[in-house]
Task: structure prediction
Amino acid sequence: GHEVSGIVVEVGSNVRKFSIGDRVAVPFILSCGCCRECDPAGRNRPTICERQEQPGFTMMGSFAEYLALPRADRNLSVMPKNVSFVEAAALGCRFTTAYRAVVQQGKISAQKTV
Result:
């Protein structure tokens, strides 16, 4: 499945923002942060990352017992304690879809009023 949330059980040597035991939500699209689509000084469109990975599609997904997620510091979010794993997992795909519709396709920015 592509809707993922869970508890961190191990961290890689390059991970700085997360610790074992953190409750995390995972977006549907794991962006690289380095390509021309991700570059905040350029297009700033991480949802169409040129090197994206997608849990459940290009890698193991939420039906796996454990997942190794690339670029965790960039892509994962700590879940508030009052948000369930089911709620957080459901947000991954829905948020990405809504974000792209409003910001990228609708061209809405902080300077615009809807």
User: Anything to note?
Assistant: The mean pLDDT is 90. The first strand starts at residue 4 and ends at 7. Strands lie at 4-7, 23-26, 77-78.
